[in-house]
Amino acid sequence: MLQLGPDVFALLNAKQWVGNRQPVVYGKGGLSILDIRLIEAKLGFRVPDDFAFLLQNVLDPGEVLFPWSNFKKQRYEDMIEWVREGILSSVANGLWLRRWGERPKAPPDALEKVRNDFATWPKLLPICGHRFLAAEPWRAGNPVFSIMGTDIVYYGANLAHYLVHEFVEQGPDKSMHHAHDQQIQSIEIWSDFAEDRPDLLAAKESCKVTASEIAAALRANLRKQVRRPLIELELKADGNVLLDGELFDSSPVLEAKLRHLTQHTPPPDLRVRQPDDFVSADVLEQCQKLLERIGYSTILLLEVDGTEVTPVFGTVWRLN
Hints:
The structure is a single chain. By secondary structure, this protein is α+β, with helices and mostly antiparallel strands. 36% of the residues lie in helices and 18% in strands. The protein is built from ten helices and 14 strands. It has helices at 6-15, 33-43, 49-56, 73-92, 107-118, 159-167, 190-194, 211-224, 251-262, 281-293; strands spanning 25-26, 58-59, 124-128, 131-134, 144-148, 151-156, 230-235, 241-243, 246-248, 269-273, 296-297, 300-305, 308-313, 316-319. A hairpin with a 2-residue loop joins β8 (241-243) and β9. α4 packs antiparallel against α8 (211-224). The chain is globular, with a radius of gyration of 21 Å.
């Protein structure tokens, strides 16, 4: 099991990939114990020892990570609110957990019940984008989750494993230390989602709501959310990509640009456009892999025309 310390810090300093941002410096500088205690006082809970150790050993001039060195309680709360609203969106769309008991017939009552329960879930600590370390129970070695609504997966067996997985393992080596090869400590609720445990969801009959109720609740929920920016990519037949008014013919440069544009809260939606030019399956696959590397799950549809089967992208890309 990877552990934070000189070896992992040296690996990160030598091989981290952060696009065109200024690299993070691991192993020196960072916050003092007093700084961390002040953050904990604002949070209202203690951070695990390994997370405190990381904060003491990281300098982040390029703001690759969540800005703990310039901690603002409101920014933290905005991140947690974003997580909660993602859960509520799934509830408005029919999801219901067994732990919530019988689903109220009125959608607003169902959403309120979930809000109240969410406040009791194990606390989270944002690390980078939509990756979060479980802060509870209070112990070292908790896993890191990638969270987008109820699409929740393990992204690191612990902090050290996450940092290497996120910033060092690229391309074919991405699974070198993947979470399924590591022993992962279980976290209430979050691990239930990540492991797709069969007793997580309520019986289907208790989840039934009419289409109009779902639509009304979802619209009401969306009105409370911050509008998410939209980034459009236009694929060209020659493999180039038009993004933000620039034409890119290099995957590393394009990836750096996308990482820069998507590291916001809330993360933007992505839309892929295919103009009249024919875009080959190879170009689509390369684009799909690129976006998955920066944390976006992709949808490929198939268009059938006689004997021809052509893969095409769905309209909207959603974060993992």
